[in-house]
Design goal:
single chain, 153 residues, mainly beta, six-stranded antiparallel beta sheet, five-stranded antiparallel beta sheet, 1 helix, 42% strand
Length: 153
């Protein structure tokens, strides 16, 4: 947000969109394919950029500006292969957001995408995607608040 000398600020100028979306329903991820995560719970969605009914894999930007985006992908227990997380803007990977981890144990695994400051304009689409390479389908984890995938801005 940029302010200029002599500019009169209003409440609308300071009322920036906030969202915290969580995945509370399991989602199966195919091995070797980046997949957009679906979010079924909105803890915060101040400007109605997300729907829990349709297109639940995205947040649609409601106001242009720079946003601090954070998120993670939570995976069910499996000790084989890699797990990853990244963010996309309009279907293009946000440079520097991708994180890949090699599995070393057979317990649940949470992989945060790098937190990024990203410029957006109205109607841009933000997603978090996950990938796993276990060799078969693997569910996300929703077993507790600390083991849920999320997207926040």
């Amino acid at each position: 947000m940029v302010f200029y000398a002599g500019q009169r600020l209003t409440a609308a100028d300071l009322n920036y969109p906030l969202a915290l979306l969580r995945q509370t329903t399991l989602q199966a991820l195919t091995s070797g394919a980046w997949t957009a995560l679906t979010f079924t719970t909105e803890d915060i969605d101040s400007h109605n950029g997300h729907s829990t009914v349709s297109n639940t894999d995205r947040y649609v930007v409601q106001r242009s500006g720079n946003y601090l985006i954070a998120g993670k992908t939570a995976y069910a227990a499996n000790g084989t292969g890699q797990r990853g997380s990244r963010m996309t803007k309009n279907g293009v990977v946000v440079a520097g957001s991708q994180v890949l981890l090699e599995r070393t144990g057979a317990n649940n695994c949470m992989v945060p995408a790098a937190t990024m400051l990203v410029p957006f304009v109205v109607n841009d689409i933000v997603r978090i995607e996950g990938i796993q390479t276990s060799g078969g389908s693997l569910n996300t984890s929703v077993s507790g608040n600390d083991e849920q995938s999320f997207l926040s801005l």
